[in-house]
């Protein structure tokens, strides 16, 4: 009898133990699925349309609404791509296309004019997963410069192409080529003429210290995105600085200055006085602070824009999103056209300093 009771107890113990182990496996499986689903749903996008002396009193109600409408259209374009499972790279490219096609921004259609009366376009894009990147500078006939930057990244062994060579490559890739007249807008042309006039009135001694120069580069567009697969990407597109000479190139096509993306940290796009963003390697500096010092996106962007850039004498701002979906829109100017949208569909649009 004792042996039977002992055998029965042993069978019960083994059965209960197997049941508990199976339950633990199911709980672990469910937990992993939940974590995986949470991760998959964590996506977001943030954009800018330039930073500078953007004051409420200088913008009409109708123009302010026009900017807000275009920012909303752009951010929703990228968000829809991400919500449907699209890649961060695709979202960045298509979002920037919306702003490139608008005369409101200093990019493609609304690009500023050089001293020679031309429109010279710069752009860059970077994949945070692979650290692959593409950029172009000094292009005059490509309808959407960000698309050419993408082609350089995907279909060449190079990172940065410029001028006629970049334009030839665009034709080979079948991109839309336009007559340079396409980029003409009256307000940008007049801005160049005013800059020329100021230049005549000042002496060579003070030329470098022109107080207006910091406001001649605004309207640059940029986008940073995190997709459902946890990949980051960033892109920037600009017409550069109004009245620029000597084929001047700013930070927008410089990887690490105007654009940077790394899945370990964040995706960043810059806008402002490009020479200072290049000297400070601003976009990469933010990522490096996060990776090597372990600081948050908010802490890194504040330190770089408000302190480091400001101490150099630079003005402008950045938009960024990290690998957890946290967003930063940091600037040290009076305003920055900006918008963000998270995985819950919550949208934020801003222009002025709050």
What can you see in these coordinates?
The protein is an alpha+beta fold and 354 residues long. The chain has a single domain (43-352), classed as (Glycosyl)asparaginase (Glutamine Phosphoribosylpyrophosphate, subunit 1, domain 1, 4-Layer Sandwich), CATH 3.60.20. The chain has 9 helices and 12 strands. It has helices at residues 2-41, 61-83, 88-100, 145-155, 163-172, 186-201, 274-279, 282-293, 297-312; strands at residues 44-52, 121-127, 133-139, 160-162, 221-226, 232-238, 259-261, 266-272, 316-322, 327-331, 335-342, 347-352. The protein has an 8-stranded mixed beta sheet with strand order 4-3-2-6-5-1-11-12. It has a 4-stranded antiparallel beta sheet with strand order 7-8-9-10. Strand 9 (316-322) and strand 10 (327-331) form a beta hairpin. The N and C termini lie far apart (84 Å).
Topology, element by element:
Blueprint: H1 2-41, E1 44-52, H2 61-83, H3 88-100, E2 121-127, E3 133-139, H4 145-155, E4 160-162, H5 163-172, H6 186-201, E5 221-226, E6 232-238, E7 259-261, E8 266-272, H7 274-279, H8 282-293, H9 297-312, E9 316-322, E10 327-331, E11 335-342, E12 347-352
Parallel strand pairs: 3-4
Antiparallel strand pairs: 1-5, 1-11, 2-3, 2-6, 5-6, 7-8, 8-9, 9-10, 11-12
Helix pairs in contact: 2-3, 3-4, 8-9
């Amino acid at each position: 009898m004792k042996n039977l009771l002992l055998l029965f107890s042993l069978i019960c113990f083994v059965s209960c133990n197997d049941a508990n182990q199976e339950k633990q496996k199911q709980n672990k499986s469910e937990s992993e699925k939940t974590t995986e689903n949470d991760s998959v749903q964590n996506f977001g996008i943030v954009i800018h349309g330039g930073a500078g002396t953007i004051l409420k009193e200088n913008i009409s109600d109708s123009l302010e609404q026009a900017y807000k409408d275009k920012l909303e259209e752009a951010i929703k374009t990228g968000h829809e791509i991400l919500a449907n499972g699209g890649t961060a790279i695709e979202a960045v490219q298509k979002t920037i296309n919306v702003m490139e096609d608008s005369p409101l921004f200093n990019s493609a259609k609304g690009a500023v004019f050089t001293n020679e009366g031309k429109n010279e376009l710069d752009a860059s894009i970077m994949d945070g997963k692979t650290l692959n990147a593409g950029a172009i500078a000094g292009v005059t006939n490509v309808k959407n410069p960000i698309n050419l930057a993408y082609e350089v990244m995907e279909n060449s062994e190079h990172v940065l192409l410029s001028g006629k060579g970049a334009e030839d490559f665009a034709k080979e890739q079948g991109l839309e080529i336009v007559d340079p007249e396409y980029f003409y807008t009256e307000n940008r042309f007049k801005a160049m003429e005013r800059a020329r006039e100021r230049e005549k009135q000042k002496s060579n001694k003070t030329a470098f210290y022109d107080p207006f120069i910091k406001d001649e580069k605004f309207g640059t567009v940029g986008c940073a995105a995190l997709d459902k697969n946890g990949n980051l990407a960033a892109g920037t597109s600009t017409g550069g600085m109004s009245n620029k000479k000597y084929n001047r190139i700013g930070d927008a096509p410089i990887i690490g200055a105007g654009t940077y993306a790394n899945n370990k940290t964040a995706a960043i796009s810059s806008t402002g006085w490009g020479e200072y963003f290049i000297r400070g390697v601003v976009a990469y500096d933010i990522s490096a602070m996060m990776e090597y010092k372990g600081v948050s996106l908010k802490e890194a962007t504040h330190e770089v824009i408000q302190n480091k850039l400001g101490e150099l004498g630079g003005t402008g701002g950045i938009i960024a999103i990290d690998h957890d979906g946290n967003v930063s829109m940091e600037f040290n100017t009076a305003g920055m056209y900006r918008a963000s949208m998270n995985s819950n569909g919550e949208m934020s649009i801003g222009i002025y300093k709050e």
